[in-house]
Amino acid sequence: MALGRFDDLLKQVVRELAEPESYKEVFHQLCDGESLPSLTGLSEIVDLCRAILFPGYFGYSHITSHTIAYHTGVNVECLYNKLTEQILAGLCFDKAAEATRERATAICAQFIGRLPELRRQLGTDVIAAYEGDPAATSYGEVISCYPVIRALSNYRMAHELHLLGVPLIPRIITEMAHSETGIDIHPAATIGDYFTIDHGTGVVIGATSIIGHHVKLYQGVTLGAKSFPLDAQGNPIKGIDRHPILEDGVIVYSNSTILGRITIGRGAVIGGNVWVTEDVPAGTKVLQKR
Amino acid sequence: MALGRFDDLLKQVVRELAEPESYKEVFHQLCDGESLPSLTGLSEIVDLCRAILFPGYFGYSHITSHTIAYHTGVNVECLYNKLTEQILAGLCFDKAAEATRERATAICAQFIGRLPELRRQLGTDVIAAYEGDPAATSYGEVISCYPVIRALSNYRMAHELHLLGVPLIPRIITEMAHSETGIDIHPAATIGDYFTIDHGTGVVIGATSIIGHHVKLYQGVTLGAKSFPLDAQGNPIKGIDRHPILEDGVIVYSNSTILGRITIGRGAVIGGNVWVTEDVPAGTKVLQKR
Amino acid sequence: MALGRFDDLLKQVVRELAEPESYKEVFHQLCDGESLPSLTGLSEIVDLCRAILFPGYFGYSHITSHTIAYHTGVNVECLYNKLTEQILAGLCFDKAAEATRERATAICAQFIGRLPELRRQLGTDVIAAYEGDPAATSYGEVISCYPVIRALSNYRMAHELHLLGVPLIPRIITEMAHSETGIDIHPAATIGDYFTIDHGTGVVIGATSIIGHHVKLYQGVTLGAKSFPLDAQGNPIKGIDRHPILEDGVIVYSNSTILGRITIGRGAVIGGNVWVTEDVPAGTKVLQKR
Amino acid sequence: MALGRFDDLLKQVVRELAEPESYKEVFHQLCDGESLPSLTGLSEIVDLCRAILFPGYFGYSHITSHTIAYHTGVNVECLYNKLTEQILAGLCFDKAAEATRERATAICAQFIGRLPELRRQLGTDVIAAYEGDPAATSYGEVISCYPVIRALSNYRMAHELHLLGVPLIPRIITEMAHSETGIDIHPAATIGDYFTIDHGTGVVIGATSIIGHHVKLYQGVTLGAKSFPLDAQGNPIKGIDRHPILEDGVIVYSNSTILGRITIGRGAVIGGNVWVTEDVPAGTKVLQKR
Amino acid sequence: MALGRFDDLLKQVVRELAEPESYKEVFHQLCDGESLPSLTGLSEIVDLCRAILFPGYFGYSHITSHTIAYHTGVNVECLYNKLTEQILAGLCFDKAAEATRERATAICAQFIGRLPELRRQLGTDVIAAYEGDPAATSYGEVISCYPVIRALSNYRMAHELHLLGVPLIPRIITEMAHSETGIDIHPAATIGDYFTIDHGTGVVIGATSIIGHHVKLYQGVTLGAKSFPLDAQGNPIKGIDRHPILEDGVIVYSNSTILGRITIGRGAVIGGNVWVTEDVPAGTKVLQKR
Amino acid sequence: MALGRFDDLLKQVVRELAEPESYKEVFHQLCDGESLPSLTGLSEIVDLCRAILFPGYFGYSHITSHTIAYHTGVNVECLYNKLTEQILAGLCFDKAAEATRERATAICAQFIGRLPELRRQLGTDVIAAYEGDPAATSYGEVISCYPVIRALSNYRMAHELHLLGVPLIPRIITEMAHSETGIDIHPAATIGDYFTIDHGTGVVIGATSIIGHHVKLYQGVTLGAKSFPLDAQGNPIKGIDRHPILEDGVIVYSNSTILGRITIGRGAVIGGNVWVTEDVPAGTKVLQKR
Known about the structure:
The structure is a homohexamer. In chain A, the strands form 3 sheets. Chain A has a 5-stranded parallel beta sheet. A 5-stranded parallel beta sheet of chain A has the order 3-6-9-12-14. The first copy, chain A, is 42% helix and 10% strand. The model of chain A has no long low-confidence stretch (mean pLDDT 90). The longest helix of chain A is centred in the first third of the chain and has 24 residues. The first copy, chain A, is built from 8 helices and 14 strands. Chains B and C meet through helix 1 and helix 8 of B and helix 3, helix 4, helix 5 and helix 6 of C.
């Protein structure tokens, strides 16, 4: 194609793409002039958090018990600066309150203050994954390799940010783990200690799910909604409790689907490939009929 | 190991690996001297396209309505240069026609000219995802987080390139989204407006599938082939229509499998975990027997 | 928040996170002062191996038959240096023997010596993927795009390292492919030539699985363990053969689950969505009852 | 050395280096908590300015007259964001006024508004370098290669920032050119149009120098101060006019030194290796006595 | 400043800077649509050449005699590809002949063919630097540290490209060394074997200089032109022999200036700080009168 | 040029360049298999040292008095690891003793232990530069901009490494500063506190120079050797004291040259452009005769 003709095409295409009417669905109009949360920036934040929470396994690998305080100090300070920027960018999406640097700073500091508890909780997840898998040879292998640990480290960070009222960003963080591991946990879900998922690909845990302690899932398990009540206009009503409750000690085998606001009682076992839409009493087993 | 011994091993291994007979299956012999499409290059192209199609959400996050024309201009020009190179490299794989820079340039310009329509169509997908999910809080959340948007942005680019006769590259682009999202859409499939997939992991949409407007799929759905007719030599016959047709308004719930050149009629609903190999009339519901 | 207050918080959080008691589950204590295997380093190693095994398709894309020896030489030497470092770091996790540079070097050299055989075997996998898929248009498309090739290239590397007694690292390498492709193959599994997996998302192949030649799986197939025998303390007994044996020529369609140390005989076909927990004789077909 | 002993040394050295008394000369105490100007950031700013002022020669080399507006738009916007941050950091060093983002923004916008005039002036310098050197073959060669153009592009940027009252940063920018070219021009010096320096290494132009139009210097020329008047405490009095005035059309050959607030009259020629400390009348020649 | 006002300023400044009349001196008009030589690209080329010519000292530092062929092969091939692109871009500046890829390729191949001779010649320069400096402890120190080696490696590459008729690029390459070392050698100068310069800062060697074998210069030496004959329009006549000839074995001490087409005879010694404008007979010494 | 012909040329050139006889002057033969010091690695080491010695001015610019210990800890640990590698590589060049990791580690630890004293000394240099220049406005400006500080930070590091017996590396480090600033200080020279150089381009300080406290030099000053005593074979005798001694408080103005093992007495002043080859008594002034 003659170069001159491409120049005309280029100008034409740019004109069309820069026409405001053309981008109204795909371009953020809330606060023109502010920047949007950056996917690259949030990815760095996840890496920093993992480096803080699992020293040596993520980030700088030469760390020792003598230098851990220096590295943690530098990483936490860096996290504070980067995360504050991203929270500020995310606050634009909260139409109810003003997006101020003061609010972003205060939220970020609260998040930083929760890091020790986050690490304690993730430590219980490491133990659960190790004890539940005969192929696991050490905690180190679990931390380095198991997708559940990556999914949970993102989920637990994101859940804290969700509790602190940060919009959008928690969801971006759990979707990063979804992409990395195939495990899709909504940041609003509630999950207890010693939680584990084996293999993990295809697991879905919906926004209003409540999961107790010592629960174990296998690959392909869905904790979903049965149907969405619609409002007068036929749109789904938002914010209703619509996902299952799994009490302490529940096990769900691969590819089973549990739908609706039902309760799977303490210690119940759901076999593989089962479709469950009603409460399951504590201590019972549900198997596929064949 | 003594260093000297490794030097001998190195030379021996290199000699074996550089022996032409040894690499005939794994090394491209069609046009020795030309370069192959580069995965890194194509990944940059996908990033550029996303930055053009969803300004601010992908790529540079500080963009405003005042600077969008500058950024779009630079990105489109850059896309034109990079994509032309890759198309030229890809044309090597088309044994039927010559791989010339003129042809690559012409194809690339046609693709560029389609960008505004691509964005319009992706805008309908954003709306469909937002309206279909009670957990979605804004278009921005959908664009930033939802795997379906990434899968569709790659698929819609790749489909255009496929229609323009570019070999190999469309498939590489949809496989990039497959890796990122767990959603595997063949670039040759035909998909209408307002299409969405919830969660998405494990979805497979085969090459000859035809999907209407306002269709919704859930995670784990397969639109596959039932069996392959074999030719006289026992090899699968290529190019036969072998995947389903989903008419407007169809919904398919999680983990269902629809196989063969069958038609799911307008507005039909396929429940979860169902195996469908025959036509489904418009407006009907198919549920798993239990 | 006032800056002064954040400084106090920072010091407090760092103090808590650097408290040895607090990180005992999440920080590697075996050989303080040694470095852990680096995820970035292992990712570079996988890229190098792929560039060596599939010249032009991965890594530098301008390679020709005239320059392949130079590129292979540089890449193999580089692989040798980087992999030796990582093996040395990984040997820390082997409590039975000392982690010496001599041992790491010797293992690495043995691995290098196996590269030509690895490439031969991967060549058979490319042929199997091409011949089994009517949508495949060339070996080049298979190598560039098909997730199974990435999963198998990582698995076959990792399996060699596993056979050479390297701890931890093989598992990290297969989990990298799991993240990239949704295909989860344990490095200890045994897999013959001409193996292929279509689409692949959700496939799980357990540690003691044995797979013959010319076997084909579809997406969502699990080769898993039925149940874990527990020891006197109620912990799973490690190292027992607990996954299936698939003999030559077996085909397993999508989303089927095969559990326990059972044998699927030569040429048997398992349909989609089937749950199999008992031996299947050679040449038979198992279909879902509907 | 035993690792344990290094850990003790490390802690000891860090303690000494983090002791406030120890770093009082080498660490900025003015506004603890604010960031200092970043050398990397300023280096990017110089690259951006050069890319704007000499399109195609610096920065992206594929630019055409059709795309220059897009590239200039993106670069100027980027310059605005980055330069505002650096000016804000630099304002800390101005003890007389508060360092506010508003002030930084206003200064930066004034600087941006001066870019067209800066480019006009640098255009005259390109012409002067081309016409004065029999070895120069094109304006393009002068812009790409001649150190004087780099020194003057930095000086002219820095001089604008100096006139706008920005502390510290102008000096950092001219010292970057000093490092790159061996030409040391103080940002406070005043220099007319069509100025050139041949070869350039070792040239020094002091802070209160005034240079007219069409002036040419050769390598090693110093425009310096003769002596510094001291105040009552024996310290040099700051801010006194102490460097030479060179009127229009003056030429100074290599390695000559001109010291003190003297005037070299219009069209005068100073030969090589000469030491001048008194006024030189217009139109005369000063040669080394031999 | 209000953001809205900056948007107006931005548009205004971009409009002025993109106005063709405004950039006619500073933007290359010869072949709009072609790219200009890239400074980054040429810098990579210099690094590649140095890595080829001084293996291990520049570029990859682990090279051994067993792997030198692999590294050299990869580097030379890479050099060929990158240099061809840059030569093609540079040929735009040659108004006398067409800039074709064929011509660029042919020139580049001739340059590649000269690399062994280039290395031989640079080897003599290393010996000269080592033998002439009592502080030098090894050839390795000379190659790693001495600015003269960097200046000569760039000059000798650039001189070959100059002889092959490449415009602009040779000058860019020698100016890179000028910036790095303070030594300014014009690529058209002719320099024999075993040449060295001590310290080097401030040395200038003009375009028509001719230097024999075994010549040594010290810092600050200028081999310059005395005056430029002007043509009828008062412009310097280009292309006249105007710089000195230094015969074999000449030594020139620091800061001396030798001007005009004069001959310094075989073995002559010029002392420091001397101004020479007339022939010096072979074997004589010229000292500063004091 | 036909591609086939280039392939032949490539093989031919590589063969010539990999011929051991051809690279004997330009390739390090001492300890084949060990790596040479890496210029990139040493450049990172210089950056780390500067970041440690001048916190905030070099390296991370957001540092505060609250986080300085964390950053210093991380930087010093990183310096220890990187510098040990480079020292080990450098020890190859010391033919008198074995290059062991133990020796490298011990030397590096001693160097680390000297950092507080190095910073104290550089603090005196900052004060000297500030007090001696009427244009200097703050210590911060001196640290950020003045080339003398960069030259001295490299020299003072390099001098410590020289005293610890490290070969080659000290010289590489001072030559990096030479390239950056035009100031060439041999690492073996001895320099007291409160030393400064104004402007700096072209300054040369030879290996056996001894400089007291409170000495000031201007640009272009050479402290050189007068002539080299030759041995019986006509080669310069290495290791003889051959450069000047400058006692406390000496000032040397621009472009003066001081040659040979002479003493410039306490408080003496040497004017500009002077050539000095004999002792100068304390307190006297030496001016150019005119």
